[in-house]
Amino acid sequence: MSKYKSIDLFAGIGGIRLGFDRAFGKDIETVFVSEWDLYAQKTYRANFSDDFDIAGDITAIKEEDIPDFDICLAGFPCQAFSMAGKRKGFDDNYKGLCRGTLFLDVARICEYHKPKVIFCENVKGLVIHDKGRTLQIIKKTFSDIGYTVFTNNDTTLNSKDFGVPQNRERIYIVAFRNDIAPDTFEFPHGTDSTKTIRDIMEEKPVPAKYYLSDVYLETLKKHRARHEALGHGFGYEIRDLDGIAASIVCGGMGRERNLIIDNRQTDLTPTTHIKGKVNTEGIRKMTPREWARLQGFPDDFVLPLADVHLYKQFGNSVTVNVIEAIAKKIKEVL
Fold it and tell me: Does 78 qualify as catalytic in the annotation?
């Protein structure tokens, strides 16, 4: 029997669970998973062998139908609070669901089950959203149902300090049930800021389909020149292999912000329908496996879907290394 039972809400492809599994080892067992995106469910199932089905829309699930648990993991949707999004917060309606208030489902479930710990992850923009009121509402909600809440808004945790070459700042909420809550909770400090893009590159030359066409590259250059003339800092970016990547983004957009130069592929015959020819400067997108590595996913993590879905899933996911470091601190308290 595992010492702690956990549930994985807004599970995505399981990045938060993976971090906790690494930190707790045999002491943790996942007893319930909810994720409404069918493609994310496919990737999740390919990597975790549970003896129960993944539940869909969390708003339609009754709290009494969820098994008892000790730890609630919840990466509730970031789009409503993201700096890249429109920052609508609690007014953000998407496909009939208000993404900004989905955290209230976390509160509803945890008020009923009273787990020892609630762990949430979100974008850095949550701290300043609505002049800080949004985060205060979230903290007060958890406080009202009997939890002592800690956040890292004074010390933003950045993925680049935890063994992956990605500049990704996030806010984490750790809430302990009042009867077991510590007086203080110290978030982890970075463990490794030495990794560069070179460390996460594919070992072999990647297929020509990842290389930009000369026509598309010319479009990007013109687009960037237009924006620079207007004083905007917007456009494609070629990253130094000895540097780090920009944050890979929710939704998988912005692949052009993390282009690299890789001259190892000599066969540049197009394998997909492109305008023009493959560029001769060696400029390519990173592959989904490289994005997985930027998020700290191991190389045995199965990538079962087409690239378009994988980019979206890793852009929406968490950096496993950071989650693991926080989970170890939570385990110390427990």
Answer: yes
